[in-house]
Amino acid sequence: MEKITSKDNRWVKEYAKLASLKSYRSQSGRFALEGVKLVCEAFQSGIRLPVVLVTGKCLERSGTDLAQAMEWGEWFLIPEELESKLTQQISPQGIYAIGEKLDKILLPDTIKKSGKYVMLCGLQDAGNVGTIIRTAEALGLNGVIATAGTCDFYNPKVLRGSMGSVFRMPCCIVGEEGRFLTELSAAGVQTCASVVDPGAIPIGEAVFRDPCVLLIGNEGNGLSLRTSVLCEQCVTIHMKGKTESLNASMAACILLWEMTK
Known about the structure:
- By secondary structure, the protein is an alpha/beta fold.
- It contains eleven helices and twelve strands.
- It has helices at about 10-20, 20-30, 35-45, 55-65, 110, 125-140, 155-160, 165-170, 175-185, 225-230, 250-260, and strands at about 1-5, 30-35, 50-55, 75-80, 95-100, 115-120, 145, 170-175, 190-195, 200, 210-215, 235.
- The strands form two sheets. Strands 8-7-6-11-9-12-10 form a seven-stranded parallel beta sheet, sandwiched between helices.
- β6, α6 and β7 (about 145) form a beta-alpha-beta unit.
- α6 (about 125-140) packs parallel to α7.
């Protein structure tokens, strides 16, 4: 296994660029992933890993788990001192891979036929996005939709939050939100806006048809009024005490559970 010791090495720079720049991930069709579990999940999901940077300590500790993945791509041994240029975690595990995005896009026509989907509208917190994708897979949703303003699916924090679910869930990004919702309604797809509004339908009383898309809004502002009025129904989680709202991913978990139970 060839050794890399310089922070100016091309693969060290490439990894750092992919980890930090959404535009470069989109342009190159590649992304950065860190950690033993994520590397294994990516490999088992059919993600091609052309380059992997790994420390000797990681190989000693997790070599058995990584054995199959090591048969593919180029693996380079790096010193632990180089990790500060790569890691985004407090306790790094010593493995950093460059992956190629899968051509596994959810097509809008698929949504119009059947299934249940969650649509993320302008969510900015990568941890929330990752957790919702993981929840969507766990509850058996058919796919995840995101608006262009939502944190991208291959953000390193989204990858960690999803724990590999992002590699398996069909996903798509839509442009103009209003137009997309209008097209869904015209095709007979039920659209449901999740809102903080005492006048909305309590989530436990809502009826979800098939196909159906549930919208989750931005962490701070929620869904815009313009978006909500385009939806067939508005649903809400009634809360007690002085709590005004829930974290976006927590609210999504409750809403999606009711949608799929």
